[in-house]
Amino acid sequence: MSAAPDWLRFAPQGRWLQIDSQQQHLYVFEQAVPVRCFSISTALNGLGEQSGSGCTPRGWHVIRAKIGAQLPDNAVLVGRRWTQECYSETLATQHPERDWILGRILWLSGLERGKNRLGHVDTMQRYIYLHGTPDSEPMGIARSHGCIRMRTKDITLLFEEIAVQTPVYIA
């Protein structure tokens, strides 16, 4: 794992997140040093920016919004809103088709015009998030629909530590 290129340009304060899609890890960097690592799951369809592709977008992004601050860790979110449900095996059995978004959302926005920002490649308009997922979903394997999935305990921890406007590099 190497530090993201151009980190000084996109993260001049020295703190950023790096998504390593090959290793299926998220790293928290302080300057050029990784200080924390989480196992994740990126898109089953691989990397790509095109709207409707089901791919995880590459390049530099920023956390545009944090959603779910006061919610239970297993709160079910649909359309960025709490459904008033909390995830359970019973609920999963009742709704086997759901792509579960649990607990917290870190909503990404692209920083690179024409690559992951604006037009048919706009990460924010594609609703690409870092979000919680059920413990039954495997980490370390690309299985999402485009977002970056994390364990609910991990996204809750990251949510508390990371500010809006934190840069995120996806490679």
UniProtKB/TrEMBL annotation:
One of its GO terms (molecular function) is glycosyltransferase activity. SUPFAM superfamilies: L,D-transpeptidase catalytic domain-like. It comes from Oceanospirillum multiglobuliferum. The active site is at H131 (proton donor/acceptor), C147 (nucleophile). It holds the Pfam family YkuD. The keyword GTP-binding does not apply. PROSITE patterns: LD_TPASE. Belongs to the YkuD family. Residues 15-171 form the L,D-TPase catalytic domain. InterPro entries: LD-transpeptidase, LD_TPept_cat_dom, Transpep_catalytic_dom. This is L,D-transpeptidase. The keyword Glycosyltransferase applies. One of its GO terms (biological process) is cell wall organization. One of its GO terms (cellular component) is extracellular region.
